[in-house]
Amino acid sequence: MVKAFAQLGIDGHPPTAPLTVDSPLEDKRAFAAMNEEVVGGVLAAFGQAVPDVEGVTTTTTTITGEDGNDVTLYISRPQTSGALPALVHLHGGGMAIGSATDVGYARAREYLAATGLVVVGVEFRNSAGKLGPHPYPAGLNDCAAGVRWTYANRSDLGLSHLIVGGESGGGNLTLTVGHKAKREGWLNEIAGLYAQCPYISNHWHDVPDELPSLRECDGYFIGLQQLALLGSIYDPTGEYARDATAFAGVATDEELAGLPPHVISVNELDPLRDEGLDYYRRLLRAGVPAVGRMVAGTCHGGDLLLPGVMPEVFAASMRDVSGFAKSLG
């Protein structure tokens, strides 16, 4: 993993920007745009190595979101008869950057589809970058619209049931979609939630002692400054800092109770490791069927990021997502 990073000059700690969460919003959005450029290049370089698959077709449709906006969905399905489980996939990027069309995400969706799933990628609005600036709840609303459209059209799509999944910021959106669905009364539409390296605590600028990985792993591919700045762009005024539909990690025990089965997968060398593990343990205490999973020796999203360097690790995580989706039928 480190050798692969060294080839791109990213095997050291990321540079520090002269910014804080209290800096002007436009300066922080400019920082996010720069991150989108740099991170997008890294993702594109590594994403090309996702194995090619055969027998999968991808189509595109546009639906109307909650706010009257267009939301594009990318639907990948295998050439298989019979009802299949669906994964509604929400990409990473701290809810601020990235696109469902990024090559790594697009190829990973097709890879998952080849395992026997219908995979729906949601092009949601970001809080910064090329698809911004749209702070909370714009992106969440788009993700929810994608989930609800998939469920409403399950017969035409040939679906048995659906789960929601995503990584990093997409992991937060996965979990917050669950809270939104519970709050609004449509939780029955979601069979399960699979969050990978979820970005959920909203404690990246005021690190608590109970989340030691935030400091222990700071700078391993991602850093606290980047995490804090992107989070502050998603909720610029801070008015949603304690809202579980904005940041899942702040959910109360009552909000966790009654949620569908979860998998929380974390990376050992990730600043976000402990907030994911804390959420998993709190789910269990709330009576939610949940599995906790740690991918040893990997950085934030490292199991998904490096399919060409660690193909067996990538394949194991893909099998786990697919297996979870199928187990809930």
Automatic annotation (TrEMBL):
The keyword DNA-binding does not apply. Keywords: Hydrolase. InterPro entries: AB_hydrolase_3 (IPR013094), AB_hydrolase_fold (IPR029058), GDXG_lipolytic_enzyme (IPR050300). One of its GO terms (molecular function) is hydrolase activity. Residues 87-301 form the Alpha/beta hydrolase fold-3 domain. It comes from the Bacteria. The keyword Hydrolase applies. Pfam families: Abhydrolase_3. SUPFAM superfamilies: alpha/beta-Hydrolases. This is Acetyl esterase/lipase. It comes from Mycolicibacterium moriokaense.
